[in-house]
Amino acid sequence: MLREAVARLRDGRWLILAIALALLAGAVAIAGRIARDQAAGDLRDGAMAALPLAAGTLTGEIEKQRLVPLVLARDDAVRDALRRAGKVEETALDAKLRAIGSDASASAIYVIDTAGIAISASNAGQPDSFVGIDYNFRHYFQEAMANGAASQYGLGTISGRPGLYLASRVDDGGKPLGVVVLKVELGGVEASWRSSGFLVFVTDERGVVLATSQPDWRFRALAPLSAQDTALAHERLQLNDAAFEPLPMERGGGDGLTTIDGSGRPRQFVEVVQDLPGAVPGWRLWLLTPADAALSSAANTARLTTLMGLLLMGLLAYVLTRRRRARRLRQEALARMNAELESRVSTRTAELTSSNAALAGEIAERENAEAKVRRLRDDLAQANRLSILGQIAAGVAHEINQPVAAIRTYAENAGRFIESGRAETASGNLTSIVSMTERIGAITGTLRTFARRPGLAASPLPVREAIDGALSLLSGRIRDSGVTIVKPHGSPSPSVMASRIRLEQILVNLLQNALDAMKDRPDPRIEIELAERGDRVLISVRDNGPGLGPEAAANLFMPFQTTKEKGLGLGLVISQEIAQELGGTLRHDPGHAGGASFTLDLRRIE
Hints:
- The protein has 14 helices and 18 strands.
- It is of the alpha+beta class.
């Protein structure tokens, strides 16, 4: 084994591998360091973006509260109370201070006379009332009396809770009357900082922590205080027994991060600082962003990415080398295959030439067969057209039979009128005969048009006029058959878009069928009903004849299907076609009892 290892080292392969691994480890370490620095920079940028918001939360609260003592220092009620200090009870002013303090969310508001005694307070009457307490020792009182305004952070002498005291002097014609003081506790600001996820705190000019999102850091110092600074902090903050222990922080490490050692677990933070001269002179705001997770994640991701990238590059180099060798072998194989392929192509070309000649013959035969199919399809279409024309020709006699019967009736009546000397009446009948011949011409013209299936000119037509025209065509037969006709009545006639001749043709067919059905029936009766349903007009023709059986009803609109002995079975077929051309429908009403009922449905126009 040893000899083999020595041989490999001499061969140089293991040495190259060792160098490659060392370079790989160095590259991974450098990538992790770069990513860690980049992540720290990103965290610092985020902290710098969050710093104004944290500072604004504090300064906004202080500036909002600072206005209250300034306004109260100019209030007449406060001045009157200070002028009468010790003479009367200030219950009205107490109530006013209590209301203002509640609205401003202040911990306490109180008024101090020139002797330092509180004469009125928002908590007057309560066990922890400030009224009567001597505040002459407070720096905010002394500085406000001297300078007009002051601020001080410290513990409350009664409540024992820390807060910021904002004081304004009350003047009367240049003469000091006392001081108005507002205490604001920064618990809401600290809660807002705490919810942001950052570690935020404020220090005074000596580095003592005042407001903080970490409650156990309050009144600790950034660094050990000297004896003089400790004494000044005790006096200023009213903390006689505070030790001002240093924070567990190590700032300014080699990586520019701040390390906090709490409970034996060091954690790293990115630190940003901002002075707050607008809030309280000497105050500084510190914002620390937790960095351990982000830095570790960035470094690990960069290391893994670099490692994977380098491994991928090595794999790619290996693959490229293998592919280059495979390409060379493949080119050699292709050269051999090309020679063999050329010989096969020559053989195959001869075979394809023979096949192409045979295929050309098959194509010619297929074209001849397709031509025959086209001719056969044209012959079938012509036969279909001739069949339709045969149906129309058979229907001509059926449609003309009605006006011819009317002509005969009018001619017979005209002869009788002439014999009886009623020439004018006979002339009217002859005029009607002329009208009937025109009617026959219109019907034949309509049937010719139907053969070509063009659209007839249509115009607005009152439905009652078409009903009256159809009844006029059949008046003689109706009178001879003794059938009672019940015409529609009621509101004015609705109008439809239709040709009057075509609409009368449908109605005459329906009335003719009804008359045929009631032959030899007692008390024959035909009802014509007119109804409107929305934008539709419904014309129904009903009789009290024997009705239609199931088989006859199923074949009503089939050509050449009829229940009459001499019928052709085309009347309803043609009527249905006309109804469809007019944009409507013609249907049989199967639910009608005591006879047959048909309904023509057309679109109504205004």
